[in-house]
Structures are given as C-alpha cells and as structure tokens.
What we know:
The chain is α+β, with helices and mostly antiparallel strands. It is about 35% helix and about 15% strand. The termini are far apart.
Amino acid sequence: xxxxxxxxIGAVAGIVIAGAALFALDAADKAYPPxxxxxRVSAEVLDADGQLLRAFATPEGRWRLKTTVGDVDxxxxxxxxAYEDRRFYExxxxxxxxxxxxxxxxxxxxxxxxxxSTLSMQVARLIEPRQGRSLAAKLLQVARAIQIExxxxxxxxxxxxxxxAPYGGxxxxxxxxxxxxxxxxxxxxxxxxxxxxxxxPQLPEKRRPxxxxxxAEAARKRVLERVAVADAVGEGEAERAEATLVPAKRMQLPxxxxxxxxxxxxxxxxxxxxxTTLKKRVQEGLESVARAAALxxxxxxxxxxVMADAETGEIVGEVGSADYxxxxxxxxxxxxxxxxxxxxxxxxxxxxxxxxxxxxxxxTIIEDRPADFFGYRPRNFDMSYQGDVTVRDALQLSLxxxxxKLLDAVNPAKLLIRFRRAEVxxxxxxxxxxxxxxxxxxxxITLKDLVQLYTALANRGQAVRIGDGVSNQPGKIDGExxxxxxAVWNIADILSGVIPPAGAxxxxxxxxxxxxxxxxxxxxxxxxxxxxLGIWVGRPDNGASPGLTGYGTAAPILFExxxxxxxxxxxxxxxxxxxxxxxxxxxxxxxxxFAINPSGLLATSGREPAPQIVYPPEGAHVDLGARxxxxxxxxLKLQGGRAPFRWLANGKPLPxxxxxxxxxxxxxxxxxxxxxxxxxxxxxxxxxxxVD
Length: 692
C-alpha cells in the first residue's frame, strides 16, 4: 500500500514536473518565436502569364526569389529529401535516429562521417544565421527546428528552404540558382540539373560551378551515387546524369522591361510581385531588335518601341530606350513618354476626315505644287513636287502639300477634337492655336499616345485606351469613334499598299512613317488586324541627326519588330458596308479633282456650289446585308449646298433635317432605290443605288 502510494505520488509529481516543463517551454516558445519573416525576398516583375521578366536584388544585394514547392520539379524534391533528410515527413524537427547514427560514427571513426541536420534544422540556420559551430549554436538550432515544426506544415518548411538555400555568391534559393546556371525556371529539371541543385548548398562557395567546376562535378556525383537518390530517380538515370556536363558559367538573371519594372517599383514599392500586361516572348523579341538596331544607329541615338493590342489596349511589349545602362544614349530616359514632333505620322487621320466628309476618294486628283496658305508654304521632304497625283498616291508618298490642303479643308481644330475622342491631346507650341503645321508634325506627342491613336485604325475607327503595362487599366473608350469605319478602311487600304523597306518581307500590315523637322525624330507606326507597333528613333537631347528618316531608319525596325515579336499576323479588318474603291472615271464630277482657293473654301465658279451626292455614287451596288435579312444603315455624303439639308429616299423624307454633310439611311429592303438631297436654297441632287 505504501509502495503503491509512493508510485502514485511519484507519477503525479512526474506529471506535474513534465507539465511545468512543457509550460515553461511553451512560454519560452511564445516569448522567443523563430524569425520566420525576417529575411526579405527579391521584388519581381512578371508578364501577363506570370513568367519572370526581371527581378531586383534585396537591399543587401542578394538574388533571393520567393520559391514554393509548386515552383520546382517534383523529382528535385524527391532527390532533396532522399539526400538530405529521408525521414523528413516523419520527425518533428529532430531526427533522433540520425543523431544516434552520427554519434556512433563519430565515436568509432574519430571524426564526423555524416551529419544529423534535418531540413527543418537547416531552415532554422538559414533564417537565423549564427557564427561558429558551437554546441550552444547547435542546441539553439534544434530548438528553433522544433518551433518551426510547430508553426509550419512540411510544405511550408520546404518553401523556406527552397527560397533561402545558398548557392554561392549572392545567389539564394533554387529559382535564382536554376536561372543563373541553367537559364530556366526549376519547374522542369533534368536529373543532372536537379542533382547539382541538391549538392551545392552544403558548401556553396567551394562548389560553385562557375569557379570550381571539378568540385561541383564531384559533389553532384556524390548525390547521384547515394542509394536513396538512385531509388528516387529510377534505374539507370543516375548513370546517365553523371555523363552530362556541369555548366561552367553563371548567366544573368532575366532583366527585361527595365523601364516598366522601375515604374512598377515606384508605384508600389512594398509589393513583391508586380504583374504586367507584357508578354515575355514579345518583350524578348523587341529588345533583341532594339539591341541590334542600336549597334547600327551609332552613338547618342536611342530608340523606343510600343506594341499594343488594339482590341484590349494592353501593352504586350515596350522598350523605353536602346540600352537602359548606356549613359551616352541617356538610356535611363523612357522615350515612350516624352513629347516629340510626330512628323508625317498624323497624316492618315487628316485623310480619314477628308474621306469621311466626302471631300475626296482614293482616286481623286489632287495637286502637289508649291502653295501659299496665308504665308505658310509647306514643301515636300525632298524639295520636289509631283504635280497632279491621286489621293492614294499622295498619302503613300507622304506628300506634304496635299496633306496641308486637306487639313485646311477639314479644319485643324476639328482634327484635334477628333483626337480627344481617343483621349489624346497633342501639345501645341506655347501661345499658338491649332494651325496647318499640325499636319507636318507641328505638335508634340508621345509614342504611347501615337500608338493609342493608331488603335482606332486597327479597330474600325474605335480607339482603345492603352495602359502603362503595370497598373493603369486599358480598355474601351466610351463615346464616338475617332473615324467612321469606311474612312478607316480607305486608310488601311492605302497604307497596306506602301512598299516595305528594302529587304523587309511583306507582312500584310499597314504602316506610316514620319520624319520631324531637322532630322530630329524618325517614326514608323504599323498595324495589322490586332496589334499596333510604334517605333521612335532619335537623340534624347533633341539634337539633329542628319540622314535620320522614318522610312530609312525606323521602318526597317518596325518590320523586324513584327517579325521577332512571335505574334502571327492578323488580317486587316474586312471592308465594312459601303466601302469600295471607285475608279476615277466613275467618281462624281465634284470628286474627280480636289482644289481649294486661298480662303480655304472648295473652289467654285464665283457662287456657292449646288449640292452633290458624293457617296454613294450613281448606280453603285452596296452590300448592306439584304440577303441575310438584317440590313445595315448606308452612309450618305454630300458636297456643296447650303445647310440645312433634307434627304429623301424613294420620295419619302428621312426623319431629321441635318446641318451636316453626312447622314445615314436604313432601307426597308433590297433592290433599287433613289436618294435625293435638297439644300436650303431648294437645289437638289439625286442618285440611284442598288441595295444588296
């Protein structure tokens, strides 16, 4: 009875002591938690698909990329556990059997044969480094490992190891090492690559393959010869892996989209992952083109490139300068955001307005001869004149005098108002009102804004808001279209016929070039049915560069950029209803030749001209979808006459009287119809058309 009582008392005392010890340990654990969030990881800039574009070193200069179990090859994880900690998933931070084995080997061999550190203990050492290998340091490591196991799952412990394991120099973590030594993410690794990544963290400096190739090979071999590793990779795989060469050089980590990356960090400095709208394949292609072009351009010249999706407005590729680190080119300046003179790149929008207002058609004759617009005397780039040319040729040849004549007719202020529909506001010279010089580059505009304007030409007249690649949301712009679809089709039909630069393949794109006054800026903007690519070349200090031209300098880069982007060419939009190219002989008399007098009015015989329907032309067959049953409206355009105008279809007046020279008519069905317009003076004009 006494013995049993003593046993009971002893048991109770033991429980009390154990409880007190556990309470003390628990209190200590809460008072001194492991520093799990102490080490910072590198900020990353990702593309639209989550691929790494560039990373930024930590404040202490480390490449430490956050890595999780899902980021690495499962076979690597199996090899890591097999080599470092076979009972990782069984123990609670300390492997008693491994400690016993290591102690026995130490006693019997007189030296350390194998260690007993678990992956949890290694993580403790990595997140809380300590100098020396004292018994106290080891005991603290054991305690920390137990604390870590209490707080984290096995997968989270592996995440910490994969992020912090040392790989020599300033490389930390499996992702940084894989990118540096293999040039790829560790998602798919060969057995040889996985074995090297398992081997390096034990002695990272002594085994760095870029400095100690033989030591790296020997360490990898020891990993592959471990029985547990061989079992993990399969029969014969270890032997084949040993025959694979170890990489002898360290590669640079991805460093794409320098300016976009810097902008991302400035906007959200505390964020570790910055998702962009860029596509890595496109960005790599554009940057390779920029590097090659910089070698040919010569000193001080830089270039910028913007490629945008005309449907969504997302920037898929952007290059802010020829070389971010080239001081001679002021590479740190993002030239996609700097206002420069656009040269002739705004001419397509002038012609688009002229088409829309019915002033001209593609085959209208327009004069290219010296002209004086109240003291403004535009001249062509080559100082020569072509005489009588078609509107189509005038735009393809980028003749200056015809463009200014058309701008004078449509009104420069109206052109700028149209640009506002695309949320683009070119910068006029100080204290100046919109003038005819706009047509030849007499405003300031950024490359991004120019690309945004051109999205309207690739998108049936509706411009989209392009983002900045980071946080500004791209998307549709509400409100009226920049230009009507028929006018946009005419522009694309003309620009797609411009001859590509020498040596460039025909890619089915429409494009326009421009050169600013004094050879300061060379431009080329092109588009297909989906993407717009804009190129700027020049000196960031706005200095002159004799010989710099849009066609000779920027256009070859444009075509090379489309080719290297890796994007398939999307056909240009199909002609909308009513879009036809009419031969000159079939044009209305008023559209066969375009002329203006010094007052800017259409030339007349001394009195206000009578109204004349310029679209649709007499006898035209227009496809409005009559066969499908859902008819589309027909655009009506007239020239001359005095507002307001009354339109009639088959003798029945349309609902509204209009002061505009454009209108729309929705027919009741297919077949022949007669359209009539009557102006304020009672003068009339009629045409007969066939609705298909």
